Amino acid sequence: MNRLETLGAEHDREGFDCGVEALNNYLRQVARQHAQRGISRVFVLVEDDSPAPKPVLGFFSLAACEAESEELPASLGRKLPRKIPAVRLGRLAVHREHQGQGIGKDLVLLALKKTAEGAALVGVAGLFVDAKDSSVAQFYEKFGFVALPDQPLTLFLPVQTLLQTVAAMGFE
Predict the structure, then answer these.
(1) Of all helices (H) and strands (E), which one includes residue 38?
(2) What are the Cα distances from residue 87, in Å, to 17, 18, 46, 65, 78?
(3) 140 is catalytic
(4) Residue 85 in contact with residue 68, Cβ under 8 Å?
(5) What sections of the chain are H helices per DSSP?
(6) Cα separation, 126 vs 30, whole angstroms
(7) pLDDT over 70, % of the chain
(8) Beta-ladder partners of 67
(9) For the segment 63-92, what is each residue's pLDDT rounded down to a tens digit?
(10) From 16, 59, 140, 145, the catalytic residue
């Protein structure tokens, strides 16, 4: 069984390799600094019974952001104020050895759950993510994300859709 944890000193960041050096370097060199400075929160998926240093199966980061409602598709943005608070799913990666096992999907759903928890405390209009290419964008679209009209690799998930997805998954 796997468990989501906040990134800490007990996690093996050096052993993580997702095949994308920029993501590997983020986890190894930047993620804890960002967390300590309050810039983002990084969550890691580990096996329940792993001893420290715990191997990281995958991770994602969340950060607060602000966006312009006019950037959204008209059907989503027209009833919102000009500036909207949101959350950004900054980075998401799965260790090479665990790719193709559904961990990426699990991480997205866990990111939605964490965002829903935050939305219960502070107002957010939704969740943004930047896809690295069109195939990754299609992956996020399966969760209800919609591409921005002028930026097809930037996608947005309205908070109502996010909350419905979390409720349907049985998350509390």
Answers:
(1) none
(2) 26, 24, 24, 5, 19
(3) yes
(4) no
(5) 21-25, 31-37, 74-77, 103-119, 134-141, 159-168
(6) 25
(7) 99
(8) 84
(9) 999 999 999 999 999 989 999 999 999 999
(10) 140
